[in-house]
Design a protein that fits this description.
alpha/beta; globular; binds pyridoxal-5'-phosphate
Length: about 425
Amino acid sequence: MKLFSTNNPNNIVDLKEAVLNAFPVDKGLYMPVKIPRLPKSFYESIQERSFNENAFIVCQALMGDYIPMPELESILLKAFDFPSPIVQLDDHLSCLELFHGPSMAFKDFGARFMAALMAYFLRNEDQKTTILVATSGDTGGAVAAGFYETEGIEVIILYPKGKVSDLQEKQLTTWGKNIRAVEIDGVFDDCQNLVKTAFLDKDLHNKYQFSSANSINIARLIPQSFYYHDAYKQLQDQGDLCFAVPSGNFGNLCAGLIAKKMGLPIHSFIAATNKNKIVPDYLKTGEFVPKDSMQTISNAMDVGNPSNFTRIMSLYGSTWNDVKQDVRGFHSTDQETLAAIAEIKEKYAYIADPHGAIGYLACKEAFQKEKRHYVFLETAHPGKFQDVVEEAINEPITLPTRLADFLDQTKSAYSSNKDYVSFKSLLMDL
Ligand SMILES: *Cc1c(COP(=O)(O)O)cnc(C)c1O
């Protein structure tokens, strides 16, 4: 499988290189050279196959015989041992629950697949690889869970101090063994910038053999296309589907667009954001203007310069009119999000998390304009945002044991300022 850099179509690498060394030197992002189309018969018979069997076919179309069949099967088997159920709320509204993995957020799909794929690529290497990753909340927890005790792979997670929930912090800082966390006195974008700079730093690279686990890694993106297929399978009799995707770095949406490009017969997408509405603004005006990120109650989407935007541009040849055919924009405020959580509970007896709730509002608005079946992605378990959800519905919710267990553990993290010099000296001394 060949991939090119979005900043230079002549910079071509194979899948192993793109997965283990996710940042091209030209600072673009890797994209498949060819996005193959699957035959109609695949979609017509999609019901007959399991999640993993369909994922296998999608992977093989993308990767060819790059990974031998039995190995690919076992990577998928290792990665996906949890479901992605559709909960149908009424005749024209469903929610796709993506929080049944180990960290209870959708990022488990990408992290587990990437961990299994990397372990496969590194199976014969002597030198350890270090995953360096910035998180705005959920990425780090999923990556930690995905890589915990993976032989030959260390993980260093950067997170913005005081900007993740208590539970999210515990999901980053209580693992030990091959997982370490660094709290950065700054915002998520500072963490992301430190990671980007560290990757291009020869001293650090020699010491650590860095690899990335952010949503920029193509190994995170590919598996995120699988659950769109699985959602389609579950809702095949509902007519044209439109997916509302709560978005931050836009990996999730980009994966959906790739699935559509491969032939998945779905109608369109809604890019649903909080007030960090860089992409909805782009869809409205044609201008992409990154800004500093602002803090909200849907903090996994507090991103001011969405990294996967460049991939979406490359999918559509940077043509605004073509993007607008497939993607509509939507954004909402914290007040609207809180009210939505209450409304979903009242109308459907369903408890949504703040990210999913923005997806819900996007569906509701779109349905007024155009009748079809809408699906919002529930990207995290509501228990991960317990305070916000309890405030919204004005009653306590019970945490699943998988989450409650984290709260009993003791935090262990390094700290650093957001300037690169301090960060580098910490990493050189670790
Ligand atoms: C990461 C995350 C998002 C945003 O996903 P992107 O792929 O970065 O757009 C939305 N909701 C939750 C709960 C997340 O953890």
